[in-house]
Amino acid sequence: METSSTAKQSNQEVPKKERTDGEPGENREEEETPKVVENGTAGEVVSDRKQMAGEVLDRWNVWEPSVYYLGKESFFIAGHEICIRESLDSYGALIWPGAVALSQFLENNRQQVNLLDKAVLEIGAGTGLLSIVASLLGAWVTATDLPEILPNLTFNLSRNSKSRCRYTPQVRALTWGQDLERDFPCTSCRYDYVLAADVVYHHNYLEELLATMRHFCRPASGTTLLWANKVRFQSDLRFKESFESCFNTTLLTELKEGEVRIYKATVRE
């Protein structure tokens, strides 16, 4: 979601208005006696999924219906109009607040975070807004997400970067925690910045996400992680505790209106 995309991992169902299988948008009642699950209680999971579904439905209500792609958003960032195609196909096909907030932060704080000629990796790139902005600011960008997210991600990057950017952004498949050294070997895949926006919410891949962050931000690599996230759930705060145990973390800004926090971090030695 922009970043952990669909559950930003592959076995979570596509959000729809009416469901009966317990996924976001469900109408099923909560169990009377919640069982403890990996990232909290079953009641907490139901509450978190309802909140995510509510954010999706808020977007749905303003879209013009079409066959497959159900909406687009336009932004003016880094001196260019950016037009993003969205869909309800997955969480990763929507624009989330963290991506907008970090995009605007990068535009307005170029001296603090200078992306010109820097190698930048985005994990959980989703619709590609953040990768597009980084490209427009002069970075050499690799945008990653699940294989099923890549067609729309590639479309958005191509339409918004052609003849505009210093470097052509690249798109690669990445499943958090899987085959990291094989697909992104430490010896050849080095980045100045890793970007992540709204990759943390109530899904079952938080350990894999943290392992992926650590893989790309190895000690002595000089890599800086910029992570923006809307604070939604208790699981967000639990992840932040684990994150801070692995990374030296600085809060760059907190947007109270959107409840988005932007962090700068380097891995602990």
TrEMBL record:
Location of the region described as Disordered in the Swiss-Prot/TrEMBL record: 1-43
InterPro entries in UniProt: Methyltransf_16, SAM-dependent_MTases_sf
Keyword set, alphabetical order: Methyltransferase, S-adenosyl-L-methionine, Transferase
Coiled-coil spans in chain: none
Repressor keyword on record: no
Basic and acidic residues: bias regions: 14-27
Bias (Polar residues) ranges: 1-13
GO terms, biological process: methylation
GO molecular function, one term: methyltransferase activity
Name this polypeptide is given: Methyltransferase 21C, AARS1 lysine b
